[in-house]
Amino acid sequence: MPNTHHSRRLFLSRAARLAVAGAVLPLAKPALASLPNARSLDFDHTHTGERVSVVFAVGHHYVPDALLTLNRFLRDHYSGEIGSIDPQLFDLLFKTRQELGTDQVFQVISGYRCAATNSHLRNSRGGGVARQSLHMHGKAIDIRIPGIPLSDLRDAAKSLSAGGVGFYPRDKFVHVDTGKVRYWQAPAPGPPLRPAGDR
Question: Which pTM does this prediction carry?
């Protein structure tokens, strides 16, 4: 009798490999998306111009190849260094989008950030970047959604009480992370300051 668990894992691995290859994405994504309890996300990176659409989890299991693709997609766009993104961050984004009742793409402003980049940004942006930013640990992302007011995105993320949520109306993004539950807002005029946050 065939090992159904092994067969399912093999299918997930092969389908995920197809789903993250841009050329076959329209054909491959439905294969995973049709599985029960499949969870997908769509991203558009504002700095690299790259786009990705992946099924990152099915039920209680994350899709390993999809996570690797998202790690690369959310790499430090300054240095090119690839970090390891906390899969729970993807769950948080998925639930946030559900709260908003949309399947629109997330525009990414910042994902993973290496220590050198974080230090450079901290020294060049008037204190608006935290010394121990959760971006350096793959636990934070700065995002917006086309057509969705920033305040609605912020409120949806806050309603989940699942991590930090920072509101940056001047820079037009919302920061979400899988750290401690806390909320902050950067002042609209002037450089953003984060005494309680973790940009």
Answer: 0.79
